Amino acid sequence: MSRTYDSLDDSLIDFIGAQRLFFVATAPLDGEGYINLSPKGLDSFRVLDPHTVAYLDLTGSGAESIAHLRENGRMVIMFCAFDGRPNILRLQGRGEVLLPGTEDFEALRPTFPAHPGVRSILRMRITRIADSCGYAVPKYEYVGERDQLQRWAERKGEDGLARYRREKNAVSIDGLPAID
Questions:
Q1: Is residue 1 very low, low, confident or very high in pLDDT (cuts 50, 70, 90)?
Q2: CA–CA separation, 115 vs 34, rounded Å?
Q3: What is the 3-state secondary structure (H, E, C) of the chain?
Q4: Contact, 137 vs 80, CB < 8 A?
Q5: Dist. CA 166–CA 69, nearest whole Å
Q6: What is the pLDDT of residues 65-78, one digit of tens each?
Q7: How many C-beta atoms lie closer than 10 Å to residue 155's C-beta?
Q8: What are phi and psi of 134, to 5 degrees?
């Protein structure tokens, strides 16, 4: 029913590419800290090679994933099939935050769509790949992307987004440093 893989092969990459939604989970080292689980979409995920993936991180209400990666690097990304053959795929590994202006960020940025409000790219070196049945995941029909986040970021503008990140994304809910 479940299987582990040595690397992302063509069938796994095709499965990932067909998903419109993925989930990112991170946690602080402190056992009393909050575990974070965030849904992501907007064509923001890329497979870079059979052991490396990345996603475009847009300005949002929190910066938990960034703070946790800066502290300890632990990360899991999960994909669920909401149509077609049931499947759940988990990519576990060590993530890092690539900030605008850095060489790695600038090299990867053109591989993603143009979105307002980009604050980083999160890249993960995969250490474990596993799938599971997904038999209990319900079927859903994709009807389109939401545009609220993009419209919000456009209204804020670059200066407003920078101010928002300083005010709302500087630290995690546990007080860990996130956006400088």
A1: low
A2: 29
A3: CCEEECCCCHHHHHHHHHCCCEEEEECCCCCCCCCEEEEECCCCEEEEECCEEEEEEECCCCCHHHHHHHHCCEEEEEEECCCCCCCEEEEEEEEEEECCCCHHHHHHHHHCCCCCCEEEEEEEEEEEEEEECCCCCCCCCCCCCCCHHHHHHHHHHHHHHHHHHHHHCCECCCCCECCC
A4: yes
A5: 18
A6: 999 999 999 999 99
A7: 10
A8: 70, 15
Give tens-digit pLDDT for 77-86: 999 999 999 9
- The CATH number for 3-168, chosen from 2.60.40.10, 3.40.50.720, 3.30.70.100, 2.30.110.10, is 2.30.110.10
Domain residue ranges of the chain, discontinuous segments joined by +: 3-168
The answer to pTM > 0.70 is yes
Q: Residues of 23-49 as b/e, b for ≥16 C-beta within 10 angstroms?
A: ebbbbbeeeebeebeeebebebbbbee
